[in-house]
From TrEMBL:
PANTHER family per record: ALPHA_BETA-HYDROLASES SUPERFAMILY PROTEIN, HYDROLASE
InterPro entries recorded: AB_hydrolase_1, AB_hydrolase_fold, Epox_hydrolase-like
Domain AB hydrolase-1: 88-323
Name of the featured protein: AB hydrolase-1 domain-containing protein
Entry superkingdom: Eukaryota
Pfam families: Abhydrolase_6
Length: 353
């Protein structure tokens, strides 16, 4: 009934990016002007060379929220490629950071796209020492002010997981800032944070404290991906946990929780933008039926699936994700160097177990 294309052997990405058993050298490249010293020390345990490289590219740009006198030093990865076409802007999922894009962002840059990766207000590595509100309105305003200050052209906005709800909400409220949407394993049908919004603050803080614990993060990482080796799962857990160590993370997360969160299901059929839906078909977080529902409700959507892939394709199958994004977006000339990428893939991927 639905024309759902499947990624073929051209971009198999059939394994999991490994973590070296060799001791990693001292962590270099991340700036003390960007990260506090204790976080730099935590980063030294990260083995993943792609994460380490992307960390070294994170910068802080000042963003002033509407009606606020305080500037938020906002974490992002700026483009290495300058282009006259509309830029790709990569968001991330719930309680995550731009480090989600450590594998796919370099591929998109190799393909010739001007590519930004932005941390959503309240998550990631932005400096929130002034404790701004981190509700939906503030997150939307922060992204708009960032766009108005630094990007200034309609975006090809990419939202994975809850980032898809962020992208839909933003596209409806600021249509002038969005050209096309790319939604990856979209979490867009939850009714906000539900009953969590009604919790007393003391209980909310206790729950949030548990959320950043290593055992829970490890369990979530294992659930998110398919058949991760223990060492890889542990390293990816440390990467996902890094931003939670910042002193304002708990306040920002509780503020988002009790504010009610994102509830965009009623907005989906109002989205006029051409939209690509990418779906890892072995997602154990979001039901695959919701991918079909999303495809039906969008005015101008197409759907593509990636086999043998879990909830975050741009981490688990970066070459497949990059290929789909590249095929969806107009670009001249096509600069996706398939032989070179396949050669790199052979070097960094291990085969299924």
């Amino acid at each position: 009934m639905f024309n759902i294309a499947t990624i073929t052997a051209a971009f198999p990405a059939t394994g999991i990016l490994p973590v070296s058993n060799r001791k990693s050298p001292p962590f270099l490249g991340a700036s003390a002007d960007v990260f506090p010293s204790f976080l730099l020390k935590e980063m030294e345990r990260i083995q993943d060379p792609f994460a380490r490289k992307l960390v070294s590219r994170i910068e802080m740009l000042p963003v002033e929220l509407s009606g606020s006198k305080h500037r938020i030093m906002s974490s992002c990865v700026k483009p290495m490629v300058q282009d006259t076409a509309n830029p790709l802007v990569l968001l991330h999922g719930f309680d995550s950071s731009c480090l989600e894009w450590r594998y796919t962002l370099p591929l998109l840059e190799q393909a010739g796209f001007e590519t930004w990766a932005i941390d959503i207000l309240g998550w990631g590595f932005s400096n929130l020492e002034t404790l701004p509100p981190c509700n939906v309105d503030s997150k939307r305003d922060h992204l708009f002010q960032f766009w108005k200050s630094y990007i200034k052209r309609p975006m090809l906005l990419v939202g994975p997981s809850l980032g898809a709800a962020v992208a839909i909400d933003f596209a409806i409220h600021h249509p002038e800032a969005v050209d096309k949407l790319i939604l990856i394993n979209a979490s867009v049908y939850a009714e906000g944070t539900g009953n969590l919004a009604k919790l007393p603050k003391s209980i909310a803080y206790a729950g949030v404290s548990l959320l950043k614990s290593l055992p829970l993060r490890f369990y979530a990482t294992n659930l998110t991906f398919n058949a991760l080796p223990f060492s890889t799962c542990l390293d990816w857990t440390h990467i996902a946990q890094l931003h939670c160590l910042l002193p304002w993370w708990e306040d920002a997360t509780v503020d988002f929780m009790i504010s009610g969160g994102y509830n965009v299901s009623a907005l989906i059929n109002q989205v006029p933008n051409k939209t690509l839906i990418i779906w890892g078909e072995n997602d154990r977080i979001i039901d695959n039926k919701l991918a079909v529902r999303l495809h039906c409700e969008l005015q101008n959507g197409i759907i593509r699936r990636i086999p043998n892939c879990g909830h975050i394709p741009h981490v688990e199958k970066p070459h497949a994700a990059a290929a789909l994004i590249t095929e969806f977006l107009p670009h001249e000339p096509p600069r996706y160097n398939l032989p070179k990428l396949r050669e790199q893939e052979d070097k960094i991927l291990v085969r299924p177990f």
